[in-house]
């Protein structure tokens, strides 16, 4: 939208290039969404028209336009916007679909945004001292670690597969 364009009076999908920092951050989050919930269409940015003295409010939304949570606050860089957009995506998925996202494939727990070594990551709380909290992946990189569940995988009846898994995790 250029200064000569009229201000929309209805919520609208943010056009490409209008908020490049948020759009680049959302592209990273959408990579994680595609890796973990491939049945969902990519998330988008929805802008609500200004009210009173406030400017346009931008939200992370499902492809159909449904959004939940707080509007995005201005960010000076993609690195600063990434955790904000990731949390907004979580709010929208949780609030609109009643679904936890993303889920740690090692523990089956919902993950949260955290910082590790100066990068925003998906953080799993773990399940105790034997399987402690950990960063699962940097935001935008869940495809590198996500393993889809294999419900039809054959299990060994003697329990050796479970013992082998425990042994490998202890290394």
UniProtKB/TrEMBL annotation:
<feature type="compositionally biased region" description="Basic residues">
    <location>
        <begin position="146"/>
        <end position="157"/>
    </location>
</feature>
<feature type="region of interest" description="Disordered">
    <location>
        <begin position="141"/>
        <end position="171"/>
    </location>
</feature>
<feature type="compositionally biased region" description="Basic and acidic residues">
    <location>
        <begin position="158"/>
        <end position="171"/>
    </location>
</feature>
<protein>
    <submittedName>
        <fullName>Uncharacterized protein</fullName>
    </submittedName>
</protein>
């Amino acid at each position: 939208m250029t200064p000569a364009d009229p201000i929309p009076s209805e919520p609208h999908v943010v056009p490409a290039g209008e908020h490049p920092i948020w759009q680049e951050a959302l592209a990273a989050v959408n990579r994680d969404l595609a890796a973990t919930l491939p049945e969902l269409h990519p998330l988008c940015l929805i802008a609500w028209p200004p009210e009173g003295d406030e400017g346009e409010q931008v939200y992370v939304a499902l492809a159909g336009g449904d959004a939940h949570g707080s509007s995005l606050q201005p960010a000076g860089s993609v690195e600063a916007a990434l955790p904000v957009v990731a949390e907004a995506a979580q709010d929208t998925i949780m609030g609109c679909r009643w679904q936890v996202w993303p889920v740690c494939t090692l523990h089956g727990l919902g993950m949260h945004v955290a910082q590790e070594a100066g990068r925003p990551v998906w953080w799993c709380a773990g399940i105790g001292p034997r399987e402690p909290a950990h960063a699962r992946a940097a935001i935008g990189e869940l495809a590198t670690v996500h393993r889809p569940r294999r419900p039809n995988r054959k299990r060994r009846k003697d329990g050796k597969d479970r013992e082998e898994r425990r042994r490998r995790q202890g290394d």
